[in-house]
Amino acid sequence: MTTPRVHVAIPIRGVARWLDAALESLVAQSFTDWQATLVVDADLDEDEPCFDIAQRWSQQEQRIGCLLPGRLGLPEALNLATAQGQDCDFLARFDGDDICSPMRLAKQVEFLDRHPEVDVLDCRSISFRDAEDGDLPEGMKRYQRWHDSIESHEDFQREFLVENPVCHPCVMMRPEALELLDDPERPYRDNGCPEDYDLWLRLLAAKARFHKLPEALVYWRDHPSRSTRTDSIYEKKAFFESKWSHFSSNLLSDAGAIAVCGAGREGKRWIRALTEADRRPVAVAEVSPKAIGSTRHGAPVVPLDALADFAPDLALVAVGTAGARTLIERQLRQMNIHSLAVAGIAS
Q1: Do 260 and 344 touch, CB atoms closer than 8 A?
Q2: Which of 18, 109, 196, 227 is the residue whose CA sits 20 to 30 A from 133?
């Protein structure tokens, strides 16, 4: 058998309700030169209905393989699934609770063939919920709009410290991109942070280039049992650890004098981390009159329009609301202060 051009890595656990529909959408792809590896992330003595479904699909569809390694945890299940496709032209991700558009693989392969400079290719998605799971939350709708606004590599660079701008189950990447990492055999790490966000930030630091197709090619199912809603690694504190690790390792040394815009919960994390790194902000800009005139870890809290007096080389916009971020960034541009958003989805 010749090596297929695309390998699709699909770790599964607790998705039996949707797995048939997900794999049906994969088999229905207009692009047919692919293989997929299902890794059932569960011990053999568990009552996990995905076992039977995965084995049935591997028996009826020769392009789908099934591995039963026992309970590994998601990062190691991803590493195992990804390792099966190292000889392919492209590595793709997909989840067992989502649905692919029939043109998904074809569109992504076509783009990557035409754009050798792109290492990681995302695409737009359509978030949805089953009727029994209720309406899509407003926060998810806002996140979707923000996600869809990110397309070029420069967009990704601008937004990477706000939230995760890459939809993991939508990704297709070049296997050689993983060679940019310290441990390409195990690209996903179990270190208390979201494993995909951690991977993208390390690839970004290694100069990998990102892009997003403007077409919505994956239906991204939201449901209350999603790991993003139940696992502690997706809490804001865990996200912050990933953000700070990237910023302190790759951006801090060249940042010059730093100001922080926002003295609320998001801002406090950055003020504290900067101070502990012996890079106390020259000032903290705040819009709330109650905070102005006080200090945060020794840094004066001032009105935003007074920030120019402190001549920061970089202002970190660390506010939790989209509207506040947009207004702050506009005013910083008027003062010719370079900024980097580290919180606040703009929509």
Answers
A1: no
A2: 196
